[in-house]
């Protein structure tokens, strides 16, 4: 999860948030939240009739990249968002030239801008695609609630459409997700058995951070708030250190659109948080990813209040110990690598750590993804 406000800082705000919204909870106290996560797996989008724009167009955010827009005519905006339908945007580096491809899913308060990641995978022999999910980045439309979702599964339509589009030119796909995108990728890969030859997870947010008490209280509180007012902006104090460590106008080396990836955070809303904790519970119950999985995180998390070495060398957003304790629940063949000095987005760490990150992906790809024997053994276990 790519914001400090929704990482360790979320725990420090829980008590005040409960107090502030006590009246809302009391108003609904006589009602039971019977809404459960949808365990059904929707059928993939028919690749013969996708609602794609007619042509790939030059990307307005990254020179040398192209975009294709997917319109979900049957997915109207929320009442508070106004007229119109949701859209998603597929980004590619260039027309197909490899047999294999990567599909990248960004995290919270994010969009795809990591050109160097695309260039690495191209050198590795993969055509690179990224999707800006609905209400994010290139897909964010005027009046929409940035990043809002009510279930992880609501992304499946656009992911199915993206996979079908990529399969027109590629026979094999690796799924790649960062942070909240890592949670989405984990659930999607589990629900779409046989679709991917590998999954790469960069600091996947697969468990809630904070104390055991906080982790126990968060799901029922957020479900209660989500019933009463799912789209209200929760009162959160902001910590901008992670954002400042990345962008070159502060202390970082990266340039990106600060209106699409904010230094602080997009507003956190109960409906979105309920969707996340429902996803976490699915991971906790065990997933069935049927291909090799690589999980890479920082070696350590921290929550500094002011600038220090921890800001540029640890994960400020999620608890990497909680992630490490859960990776075995993702599937039958999982590799965990923890890199000293890595940031929450490992690919945006300092040059030495980035090199180690890409080396780990290269070794994993050679040892497991391109090894037919490993794939056959995993399939046999299913």
Can you give a write-up of this model?
There is one protein chain. With 382 residues, the protein is of the alpha/beta class. It has one domain (4-29, 63-381): Alpha/Beta hydrolase fold, catalytic domain (Rossmann fold, 3-Layer(aba) Sandwich). Helix content is 33%, strand content 15%. The chain has helices spanning 8-20, 22-27, 115-124, 156-166, 180-191, 212-228, 241-246, 270-285, 320-326, 351-369, 372-381; strands at residues 57-58, 66-76, 85-92, 100-105, 126-132, 172-178, 198-202, 293-298, 334-339. A nine-stranded mixed β-sheet has the order 1-2-3-5-4-6-7-8-9, sandwiched between helices. Helix 5 (180-191) crosses helix 8 and helix 6 (212-228) packs across helix 8 (270-285). The chain is globular. The two termini are 31 Å apart. Mean pLDDT is 87; it is low at 2-50.
CATH topology: Rossmann fold
What is the average per-residue confidence, as pLDDT, rounded to a whole number? 87
How many beta-strand elements? Answer: 9
Domain count? 1
CATH superfamily annotation: Alpha/Beta hydrolase fold, catalytic domain
CATH class: Alpha Beta
Shape, principal axes of CA atoms: globular
User: Main sheet, how many strands, which sense, barrel?
Assistant: 9 strands, mixed
Q: Give, in spatial order, the strands making up the sheet with the most strands.
A: 1-2-3-5-4-6-7-8-9
């Amino acid at each position: 999860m790519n914001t400090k406000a929704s990482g360790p800082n979320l725990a420090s705000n829980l008590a005040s948030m409960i107090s502030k919204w006590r009246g809302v909870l009391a108003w609904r106290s006589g009602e039971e939240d019977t809404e459960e996560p949808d365990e059904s797996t929707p059928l993939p989008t028919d690749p013969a009739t996708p609602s794609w724009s007619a042509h790939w167009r030059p990307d307005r955010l990254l020179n040398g990249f192209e975009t294709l827009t997917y319109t979900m005519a049957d997915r109207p905006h929320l009442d508070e968002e106004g007229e119109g339908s949701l859209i998603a945007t597929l980004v590619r580096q260039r027309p197909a030239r490899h047999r294999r491809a990567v599909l990248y899913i960004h995290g919270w308060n994010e969009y795809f801008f990591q050109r160097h990641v695309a260039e690495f995978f191209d050198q590795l022999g993969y055509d690179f695609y990224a999707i800006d999910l609905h209400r994010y980045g290139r897909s964010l439309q005027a009046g929409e609630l940035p990043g809002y979702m009510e279930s992880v599964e609501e992304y499946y339509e656009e992911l199915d459409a993206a996979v079908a589009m990529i399969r027109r030119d590629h026979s094999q796909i690796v799924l790649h997700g960062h942070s909240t995108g890592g949670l989405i990728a984990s659930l999607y890969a589990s629900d779409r058995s046989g679709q991917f030859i590998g999954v790469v997870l960069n600091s996947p947010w697969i468990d809630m951070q904070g104390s055991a008490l906080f982790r126990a209280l968060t799901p029922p509180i957020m479900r209660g708030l989500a019933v009463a007012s799912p789209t209200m902006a929760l009162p959160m104090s902001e910590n901008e250190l992670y954002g400042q460590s990345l962008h070159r106008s502060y202390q970082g080396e990266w340039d990106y659109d600060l209106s699409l990836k904010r230094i602080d955070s997009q507003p956190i809303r109960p409906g979105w948080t309920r969707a996340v904790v429902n996803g976490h519970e699915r991971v906790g119950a065990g997933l069935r990813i049927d291909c090799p999985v690589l999980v890479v995180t920082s070696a350590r998390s921290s929550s500094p209040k002011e600038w220090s070495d921890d800001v540029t060398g640890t994960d400020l957003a999620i608890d990497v110990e909680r992630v490490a304790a859960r990776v075995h629940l993702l599937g039958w063949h999982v590799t965990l690598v923890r890199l000293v000095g890595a940031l929450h987005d490992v690919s945006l760490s300092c040059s030495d750590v980035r090199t180690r990150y890409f080396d780990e992906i290269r070794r994993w790809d050679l040892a497991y993804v391109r090894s037919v024997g490993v794939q056959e053994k995993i399939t046999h276990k299913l």
